[in-house]
Amino acid sequence: MFETFALQIPVIGVSAERFVVLLLAAFAGGMFGASVGALPSFVFTGFVVLLGETAGTVIRQLEGVDLVTAGELGTGITGSIGFGPFVGPHIVFAAGVAASAYAGKNAEFDVDGKNILHAFGTRPDVLAIGGVFGVLGLLIARISSGIGLPLDGVALSVMTTALIARLAFDYPLIGTPAGDGYLDMTPFEKGTLRGDGSDRLAVEPWLPQQYEWASVSAIGLAAGILGGWAWLVTGSFFLGYGISAASLLFLQLGVENFPVTHHITLGGSSFAAVAAPMVGGSEPLILVAAAVGGLVGALLGEVTQRVVYSHSGTHVDPPAMSITIYSLILGVLFLLGVIPNAAYLGL
């Protein structure tokens, strides 16, 4: 029996024993995500990533500390906990999204399928849904990494599980635009209803305070520069991401007009790292590249929310879609030899 557990699982890249442990942890993490809700669980992600990246950065500054050891400490907290079964967004956030999708079709709940702020407590059926999607999220991320896809497997998993939830709970995969195409937000601006007897808007932007092209571009430039600056002074790709994710506590608490920026700060740090050797280490040019990365992340988030999010009845995460797309672009360009590195992808 123990010899069987020592066997490696193909593609996943771990022993059978560790694989069983990961599945159990992912199921529990999914239950946790459904219990506390999608956005609250992602706030936990932010704080844990912030802790892990800060720990690694501080230890690297201490004299006499081996850099490999310091890096392993920061990476261990970030990778194993922040992006692992406990609070990894592909597990807990994905589970919370699926729980809301399930509740949106269940007359026992008074919860909209797009509501990612809602905590479901201890309902066994909802927790079971969360557990299943937690395992699914783990598998998608692990398999994408195992087969060598040149992208962010966590973001891909968050996006894919949300689309699967739409199909599983009988929502339109993309939906039908009410205006002049998928990018048209004027039905929202006019207050046009769906016409199905409900009071739901025909087009529902992801963030009513963050959908106009000019405002999206402005926050993209600003947060991108800050993400690049964080990388420049600490070497951490995810410190800015952690700050952005943790800041969503204020969105959860109802602070009006609060922006969502983790896909932007990660774009900034990634583009900064790619540009650094190309511009000879020039710090002003590195921050220009970071601004471009933030702008790309912000605009991709807006395009994807208009196409995929706004016209159906559940949450498909625009930041996850944005990160998936630009990480794939960076990964492919690196493999083609066009850019000198693939940022945080480890290719």
Automatic annotation (TrEMBL):
Q: What are the protein's UniProt keywords? A: Membrane, Transmembrane, Transmembrane helix
Under InterPro entries, the record lists:
DUF7973 (IPR058279)
Q: Which Pfam families match?
A: DUF7973 (PF25928)
Is the Transmembrane helix keyword given for this protein?
A: yes
Membrane-spanning ranges: 20-51, 126-143, 149-169, 238-255, 262-279, 285-303, 323-344
Domain (DUF7973) ranges: 20-345
Q: What is this protein called?
A: DUF7973 domain-containing protein
Q: What organism does this protein naturally occur in?
A: Haloferax chudinovii
